[in-house]
Amino acid sequence: MSATMTGWLRKDGRKGIRNTVLVAYLVECAHHVSEKVARDFPETDVQVIGFSGCFPSAYGQDMMEALCTHPNVGAVQLVSLGCENFRKADLVRTIEASGRPVNLITIQQTGGTRSAVDSGRAWVRDTLAALAQSPRVPMSPSELVIGTICGGSDATSGLTGNPAAGRAFDRFVTEGAICIFEGTGELIGCEHVMAARASTPALRTELIATVTKAERYYAAMGYGSFSQGNGTGGLSTIEEKSLGAYAKSGDSEICGILRPAERAATGGLYLLDVVPDGAPKFGFPNINDTAEIIELISCGAHAVIFVTGRGSVVGSAISPVLELCANPDTYARMSEDMDVNAGRILTGHGTLSEVGDEIYNKLVALGTGEMTASEELGHTEFVFTYKNPTQADPGCHTAT
Amino acid sequence: MPMKERGFVRLLHLHPNDNVAVLAQDGKKGASAKLLETSLKLPCDLSMGHKLAIGPIGKGAEILKYGAPIGTAACEIAQGDHVHLHNIKSQYTVIEDMEAGQT
């Protein structure tokens, strides 16, 4: 199967499984123009992302730079209002340095909405034609970056969907791919189990500190991490709930911790620490599932596995989201939105290994022209909000 | 034949070290459940996702699910007992929020 997988080769050497043109607004005031530009190309892979602004944000800058140079992105149309607080010249330089075509439209300079839209459409049209000639080269599963999250969870998530995702992760890690799991707020109670899988004693300490930080942060937000519904659904303790979410990381050794917008240097399994350092500020670390998906993508994820029990219909801009349904009843109701029926393990129609293999194969097939259900249905959700800047540690926390 | 009426419930043993098994489907009190050579009967009506002890668990011993501790036994737990809020103690303080939510 790996022989038929191909990727778009970028000038920075990265390979993407999609050839997306981004229309990216640098403040909410430029959002409408961006949408109008993108809507002119409904049958092509032109997607809108952006940062609401308007206050300065090192995190916002880091995220936009990482997303605009993502391997699945072929070119970027930036849309600025003109007066917003965003270091757009730096963003342009970063995109240029990656070898991707970039164009900046400043609405206040072009003369308003209509002229900005016309200008953006013309550039995107020309760029799409040029991108169609981009080289496609052989790509191996070992070159993939895969993220995983769970949301809309129920009692079945930790039984079928998350462990099956973990099986797929184990296969990818064995092949040398980069696999990223997240959710430090949902790892409270299993930090010691997780830390035992750390590749070094130093990382073990860091993993525990990461979860302790999350515990403190969520407590400050007043976030209750265990609901009555969890108990009714058969979960007895917070650590049991956390272990269900943690199961999606598989059994491989954990080799490092990533922050949003940070890339792993080598293949292996990484924890994405979504909780900012310092005093709690700006609200919840991730306001919804899409914010978590976008942070996984900011770390270079070519695709994201989304495990749901209740039934999520979330896709994403930039990278395909593979919907994995843990609950057989939910699957029966919402099958069009689901890529994998992990709930069949509960009805005796499959094993964890079989479902893990199916997830693996479907992710690899995304590099052979296959699309996910959320892509077919046109999902391109995108959001991120303010956070404290990511810590200025050089590189990732890869164990050496 | 009450056994036939009450039916048979499938169990999942998630990790070889686990001392609990998880119901793969809803089950009625008295329904049979089997795990390798261990035969159990549901002590009460239980829905999918709930846990049964597959052997006796001493007070204070760790409850293992996914091969990892999810808490400790708050009392002596017999083989086949429903393992849940009434007989597990979390090793984290947050459990108090959860128990308050259950009353």
Q: How confident overall, as mean pLDDT of chain B?
A: 84
- Percent helix among the residues of chain B? 10-25%
Low-confidence stretches of chain A: 392-400
The proportion of strand residues of chain A reads: 15-25%
Shape of chain B: globular
How many β-strand stretches of chain A? 14
Helix percent of chain A reads: 25-40%
Q: What strand order characterises the main sheet of chain A?
A: 10-11-9-8-12-13-14
Order of helices and strands of chain B: HEEEEEEEEEEH
Task: Indicate the multimeric state.
Answer: heterodimer
Strand content of chain B: 25-35%
Computed CA radius of gyration of chain A, to the nearest angstrom: 20 Å
Number of helices of chain A: 14
Q: How many strand units of chain B? A: 10
Major sheet of chain B, described briefly? 4 strands, antiparallel
* Straight-line distance between termini of chain B: 36 Å
Shape of chain A: globular
Describe the structure.
The complex is a heterodimer of chains A (400) and B (103). With 400 residues, chain A is an alpha/beta fold. Helices cover 37% and strands 17% of the residues of chain A. Chain A contains 14 helices and 14 strands. In chain A, strands 10-11-9-8-12-13-14 form a 7-stranded parallel sheet, with helices on both faces. Chain A has a 4-stranded parallel sheet with strand order 4-3-5-6, sandwiched between helices. In chain A, strands 2-1-7 form a 3-stranded antiparallel sheet, with no helix packed on it. In chain A, strand 8, helix 6 and strand 9 (178-182) form a beta-alpha-beta unit. The longest helix of chain A is centred in the middle third of the chain and has 21 residues, at 201-221. Chain A is globular. Chain B contains 2 helices and 10 strands; from the N terminus they run αββββββββββα. In chain B, 13% of the residues lie in helices and 32% in strands. In chain B, strand 4 and strand 5 (38-41) form a beta hairpin. By secondary structure, chain B is mainly beta. In chain B, the strands form 3 sheets. Chain B has a 4-stranded antiparallel sheet, with no helix packed on it. A 3-stranded mixed sheet of chain B has the order 1-4-5. The interface between A and B is medium-sized, with 33 and 33 residues.
